[in-house]
Every structure is written in structure tokens, then in C-alpha cells.
Design a protein that fits this description.
The complex is a heterodimer of chains A (150) and B (534). Chain A is of the alpha+beta class and 150 residues long. Chain A has three helices and two strands. In chain A, helix 1 (65-77) packs antiparallel against helix 2. Chain A starts with a strand and ends in a 27-residue tail after the last helix. Chain B is an alpha/beta fold and 534 residues long. Chain B folds into three domains: 54-92 and 131-184 and 326-392, 3-Layer(bba) Sandwich (FAD/NAD(P)-binding domain), CATH 3.50.50; 187-322, FAD/NAD(P)-binding domain (3-Layer(bba) Sandwich); 403-527, Enolase-like, domain 1 (2-Layer Sandwich). In chain B, the strands form seven sheets. In chain B, strands 1, 2, 5, 6, 7, 8, 20 and 21 form an eight-stranded mixed beta sheet that branches. A five-stranded parallel beta sheet of chain B has the order 10-17-11-12-13. In chain B, strands 24-25-28-27-26 form a five-stranded antiparallel beta sheet. In chain B, helix 3 runs parallel beside helix 11 (379-393). Strand 2 of chain A pairs parallel with strand 26 (428-433) of chain B. Chain A: One of its GO terms (molecular function) is protein-disulfide reductase activity.
């Protein structure tokens, strides 16, 4: 059973696991997915790419940001059967640029534990409710500029 | 409320495509052949003789977290943007929290040089947001094709001409701008009694904020017998715990003194502040609470701290952690409003001070639509407000809405995360369960596989808390406050929440603050946090 005590203006409640088993009856306000004030994920409600999404890490803002944007845009809007198949040139530009900055965009070959410092994790405000998965971990060939910008 | 799986598919799909493009056999050869030296020289100190830009479309004053976040935001939204950061520090932008936490726990003896640290999960990172190769040289800002971010170090802005849209540096250089961000943070406050105490005392006092302060304090801690930290808030308590841990390996005495009754006395309700103080003592710190400093003298090669109640403390070195004085140097010349209640430049909900001028980070006193006018001195706020300023500088017109959070760890066994207004003078309701061995900051990061807490909060969104199958063993705890959630109320509305040894629940907390509803039974609200589970 839960029990409660007061210390002046502060109230302290102790609860057991059983006390909290019944579902909460607290009412939360329904979220508006199109709220313009809210932080957006990678894809905006209108289908555009949110280049400022923390999940991109510094990809869109770094020295190869323009090339990255072109490649990703091409891919995103691609309607080909093999999605992105018409974007090879953009991809190549991006890759060439990234090779000039191995510190920022580590390639698989020279990946070691102490990779380039990433601003993505340090910079991303905690729990931007954008989906960030670990599908591409820091050990993969992702050309991201750091560890967890997936 | 939780992550939208649809968004992650877009991310996943792109990276799957990238992976595929990168694996064809030709890649290895082209990678070898294509690898060149970095074409652009690394950013070093800028010799005065080279030609600096006389105009920067985006001029960011201050080279800290808020500025860097704004720079990234601007570059993301304005293709080819040319951003110039001007900082009086010698360093490129870096993150501050590790200076009073992780860096102290590093095993690497060269940590003061590298400023890198290994997390519990083995991942290493630098405190610098980006290495020098990320930036372009200020002299190249005008000519570089796709724009970039340039950092001008070691220069102070001394005058702002709002009508002429330009600033003047301490070397009389003038730089004009289209859009300007003031993100100059602040300087640590000192105690008047120390300022008046003379050279010998000042020489042995550290006002802790920057990389150089970390380096010097690290050196001091290896060469003295006793260090006293004045201040019982976040910074003071974190440094005390960090040095306290060091004291176990050497015979360093670590003392912490403050006027409140317990650590974090201005933030935590008294019962929790007391509990925390016991924890700090366990980290090897001699805590003197209700301590007001009357005077400090230098005598017989020791510092003597005389307290108002008659106590005398003899020590070798003092660290003052008594708050931050926000930098409003440009208020006068720029005709910018300063807030008399909170300090800092007064800005609106969109972080704008005047036309073409925004302020973000520690120096910004802004209007928070939900919580009212405030000024926040935390890392995540610098990130959130910096990003927002950058968005608004590129035409977004969004108000401060996404509530920032903060966190603190007192050693590896106790940690909390907080959001909103957490002022101990407010009425609070705390809902607690008993802690198990699994409920520590260390366990939280190990489980989520990330290093810094801020990473873990960001990355771990697609998964929600999963109850462990076998109940974790209950740790023998004298204290009752193992883990729980504490609500801070203003007019019956929750304006602040602390997650006490409960991690990865910040989205729920943020939602409750955002709703701003009156809840009749906070225990019901507490249920939303699943405090009994991992």
C-alpha cells in the first residue's frame, strides 16, 4: 500500500509496484502532429526534408553539407523502381567531398574507437522526438560525422 | 507522445541506400585513390596581418554551445550560408558539462591535453563539437563556394552599432552583418570577500568555467593538500564529488561549503537535499552547510576562511562556484534591454532582442510561453535556444517551445534529470519507489549503449521502457529515496519535474509540462513514469 507524509509544503508518497499497476487516470492533452511549434522529425508533415533534424548530426551543415543535401534530396524524391538509382552522380560528389575530410567522415577502412568527435550527440537536445535508431551504428560504413547520427 | 516510427523509416531508408552505394568493390580503390590531404589548413590562431572578412551574413558573438548550435541550424536551413563565430577564447566550440564531470573520471593521464574521455561503455569522444577540419578559415569566408562556419578566436567584441549593423572588435576591426546572434554566456561570479582579500588569495582561487580552469584545477589538485569549494549548487557539488573521488587516491582533503542547509538546497526539497548531502559526504567530501564566508586571509602559506558563525577553515586552494554573471557588455552600445530580475539581455519568445539581433544561451532572458519569462543556464538550453535562434535567423519565426532539460550526477550511483522550473521554494510532491542496483546513471548508460546522458536521451526514443523479466535484487538502502519523480507546482500546475534515478522518461515529463494542466492526483500522473521498471 502506498503511504504518504508531509514535510511542510512538500509531500512525499511511497508507492509499491502493485500500487502503480492500475492504469493511470491522468488526462493528457492530445498532440497535434501538425503543430508548427513542435520539433519536427526528419520528414516534415508536408513531405519535405527537415535539414535541421538532429538525427542528421552535422551532415547537412558541415563542409559537405551541400553535396549531402543534393544526394539525400535526390534519393528522397526519387520515384524510380530502385529508389535513388538516378542519384549516382550526386552520391559520388558527396563521397568525393567526404573523402577530403576523413576526420569528419570516417570511412570504414580507418575506423577505430577514437573516431572524429561528433557534434551530433553533444548537440542534440535530449529526446527531440525524432526517431533515431541504431540501425547504423558507429561501426558501420555510415558516412556520418560521428557516432550516433543515424 | 513517443517517437514516430514513420520518421525513422526515412532515416533508415536513406542510410540503407548509402550503405549499398558504398559497398561495391570499386569503392576500396576509389577511396584509396580519392583520399587527399585536407585541402584547407586547420584553424589556428588568426594572424592579424591576414585579411579578415569585413562582412559576415551571419555573425555569431560567442563561441560556446549556443553559438555552435545556431551555426549548425543556420547551415542546415540556408544552403551555402557563411557563418562567422567570434570568440574571445582561444578554443573552438566545446561542450561544458564534461569539464565538471566526465573529464575528472578519465583514466588517461593526458586528458588535460586531449580533452577526450572514455565513457563507461568504452566509447570515446572529445569535448569539442567538431575538429578543426570542420571549420573554414575566416579569411576564406567570402570566397568559399558552399559557405561554411569560420571561427575567429581570441577576439572580443567591444561595441555594437545596431543602426549600422556592425560590431567593433578589441583590435578596432569592424565587421558588419545581416543577422547577428549574441551568445556570449557569462563569467563566473566571485565572492566580494575574496575579491577584497588581496593578490595572494586571488592567486589561489579558481573561478571555474572554461577549459583553462579545468586544466589549472587539475594541476592544483595534484599539488596541494586541501581544496575548498564554495557553493552548493550543480557546479560546486559536481566538482566536490569529482575531487572527492580523487581524494581517495591521494591525501587530498576536499571541503565544500555553502549557505544552504544541504547540497542543491535551492533546487531539491529539503528531505532530498539532505539525502543528497549524505551522498556527497560518501564521495569523500567534508561538507560544511549553513556556512557564510566572512573573510578570507592568506597566512603561513595557507588560506584561512573565516565563517560568520566563528568556524575557521584552513585550506590551500579555493574554487568558487557561486553562480554566473551573464554578459551584457554590449547592452549600452547596442541599445539593448537588460532584464533586472534575471539578468541577461531581454528578448521575446522568438529570442529576438531587436531587428536582426537574437540572443541565445546563458545570456538570454527570454519569454517562455508556458512558464513565463526566465533565464536558463544549462547545456541543453544552450542547444535548444541556439538551434531556435538559428532557425529564426533564417526566417522561421518560432517561439521557444521545446522545453530544455538538465541533469546532474553525483558520482556513478546517483543521478537525476530535470525539466522546467525546479525551485525548492515551490510546493513539491515526490513519488518514490525503492531503488534496485539497476537504477543508477551508470546502468542507464550501459543499457542504452551510449556515453553521455544527453546522447542516451536523444537516441533512445524508438524503444519504450521494457519491464525486466526477473525482478532485480533490491539493494539494501537506509534511504527511502531510491528512485522516483518529483513534481514542482505553481498554482496547482506542474511547472517542473525531477526524475530521480529514473532515466529515459524525459518525453513524458516534457509532455506534462507542455500540457500545463491541473492534475487532481499527482500519484496518477506519476504512474505514467513506470518508476518501478528499468
Amino acid at each position: 500500500m502506498s503511504y504518504c507524509r508531509e514535510e511542510g509544503k512538500d509531500r512525499i508518497i511511497f508507492v509499491t509496484k502493485e500500487d502503480h499497476e492500475t492504469p493511470s487516470n491522468a488526462e493528457l492533452v492530445a498532440d497535434d502532429p501538425n503543430d508548427p511549434y513542435e520539433e519536427q522529425g526528419l520528414i516534415l508533415p508536408n513531405g519535405d526534408i527537415n535539414w535541421n533534424c538532429p538525427c542528421l548530426g552535422g551532415m547537412a551543415s558541415g563542409p559537405c553539407g551541400s553535396q549531402f543535401k543534393e544526394a539525400f534530396s535526390c534519393f528522397h524524391y526519387s520515384k524510380e523502381e530502385v529508389k535513388g538509382s538516378e542519384c549516382i552522380d550526386h552520391f559520388r560528389n558527396m563521397q568525393e567531398c567526404m573523402q577530403r575530410y576523413p576526420e569528419l567522415y570516417p570511412q570504414e577502412e580507418d575506423k577505430d574507437e577514437s573516431t572524429a568527435p561528433s557534434d551530433s550527440a553533444a548537440l542534440t537536445s535530449e529526446s527531440d522526438s525524432t526517431a533515431v535508431t541504431s540501425a547504423v551504428s558507429s561501426d558501420s560504413t555510415s558516412p556520418t560525422d560521428g557516432q550516433t547520427a543515424s | 507522445m513517443f517517437s514516430n516510427i514513420k520518421k525513422s523509416r526515412a532515416c533508415n531508408a536513406f542510410y540503407a541506400w548509402v550503405l549499398e552505394m558504398m559497398t561495391p568493390t570499386g569503392k576500396s580503390r576509389s577511396v584509396q585513390a580519392g583520399r587527399q590531404q585536407n585541402k584547407f589548413p586547420t584553424v589556428g590562431s588568426t594572424p592579424a596581418s591576414l585579411k579578415l572578412p569585413s562582412h559576415a551574413p551571419y555573425l555569431l558573438l560567442g563561441g560556446g554551445t549556443a553559438s555552435f548550435a545556431a551555426a549548425r541550424s543556420i547551415r542546415a536551413r540556408d544552403p551555402g550560408a557563411k557563418v562567422l563565430i567570434v570568440t574571445d577564447e582561444p578554443d573552438l566550440p566545446y561542450m561544458r558539462p564534461p569539464l565538471s564531470k566526465e573529464l575528472w573520471f578519465s583514466d588517461d593521464p593526458s586528458v588535460t591535453e586531449t580533452l577526450r574521455f572514455k565513457q563507461w561503455n568504452g566509447k570515446e569522444r572529445s569535448i569539442y563539437f567538431q575538429p578543426p577540419s570542420f571549420y573554414i578559415n575566416p579569411e576564406e569566408l567570402d570566397s568559399v563556394e558552399n559557405g561554411g562556419v569560420a571561427v575567429l578566436t581570441g577576439k572580443k567584441v567591444v561595441h555594437m552599432d545596431v543602426r549600422g549593423n556592425k560590431v567593433k572588435l578589441d583590435d578596432d576591426t569592424e565587421i558588419s552583418y545581416d543577422k547577428c546572434l549574441i551568445a556570449t554566456g557569462g563569467v563566473p561570479r566571485n565572492l566580494q570577500v575574496i575579491e577584497r582579500a588581496g593578490e595572494e588569495v586571488m592567486k589561489r582561487t579558481t573561478l571555474f568555467r572554461k577549459i583553462e580552469d579545468f586544466r589549472s584545477l587539475d594541476k592544483v589538485s595534484r599539488n596541494v593538500k586541501s581544496i575548498t569549494i564554495i557553493g552548493g549548487g550543480f557546479l560546486g557539488s559536481e566538482l566536490a564529488c569529482a575531487l572527492g573521488r580523487r581524494s581517495t587516491e591521494s591525501d587530498l582533503e576536499v571541503i565544500q561549503m555553502f549557505p544552504e542547509k544541504g547540497n542543491m538546497g535551492k533546487v531539491l526539497p529539503e528531505y532530498l537535499s539532505n539525502w543528497t548531502t549524505e551522498k556527497v559526504k560518501k564521495e569523500g567530501v567534508k561538507v560544511l552547510s549553513e556556512a557564510l564566508v566572512k573573510s578570507v586571509t592568506y597566512k603561513d602559506d595557507k588560506l584561512e576562511i573565516h565563517l560568520k558563525d566563528g568556524r575557521l577553515v584552513k585550506t590551500d586552494h579555493i574554487v568558487t562556484a557561486v553562480g554566473l554573471e551573464p554578459n551584457v557588455d554590449l547592452a549600452k552600445s547596442g541599445g539593448l534591454e537588460v532584464d533586472s530580475d534575471f539578468g541577461g539581455y531581454r528578448v521575446n519568445a522568438e529570442l529576438q532582442a531587436r531587428s536582426n539581433i537574437w540572443v541565445a544561451g546563458d545570456a538570454a532572458c527570454f519569454y517562455d510561453i508556458r512558464l513565463g519569462r526566465r533565464r536558463v543556464e544549462h547545456h541543453d538550453h544552450a542547444v535548444v535556444s541556439g538551434r531556435l535562434a538559428g532557425e529564426n535567423m533564417t526566417g522561421a519565426n518560432k517561439p521557444y517551445w521545446h522545453q530544455s532539460m538538465f541533469w546532474s550526477d553525483l558520482g556513478p550511483d546517483v543521478g537525476y534529470e530535470a525539466i522546467g522550473i525546479v525551485d525548492s521554494s515551490l510546493p513539491t510532491v515526490g513519488v518514490f519507489a525503492k531503488a534496485t542496483a539497476k537504477d543508477t546513471p551508470k546502468a542507464a548508460t550501459e543499457e542504452s549503449g551510449t556515453g553521455i546522458r544527453s546522447e542516451s536521451e536523444t537516441e533512445d526514443t524508438a524503444t519504450s521502457a521494457v519491464a525486466s523479466v526477473t525482478p532485480a535484487p533490491v539493494v539494501e538502502n537506509k534511504d527511502d529515496y531510491g528512485k522516483g519523480v518529483i513534481f514542482y507546482l505553481r498554482d496547482k500546475v506542474v511547472v517542473g519535474i525531477i526524475l530521480w534515478n529514473v532515466f529515459n522518461r524525459m518525453p513524458v515529463a516534457r509532455k506534462i509540462i507542455k500540457d500545463g494542466e491541473e492534475h487532481a492526483d499527482l500519484n496518477e500522473v506519476a504512474k505514467l513514469f513506470n518508476i518501478h521498471e528499468d
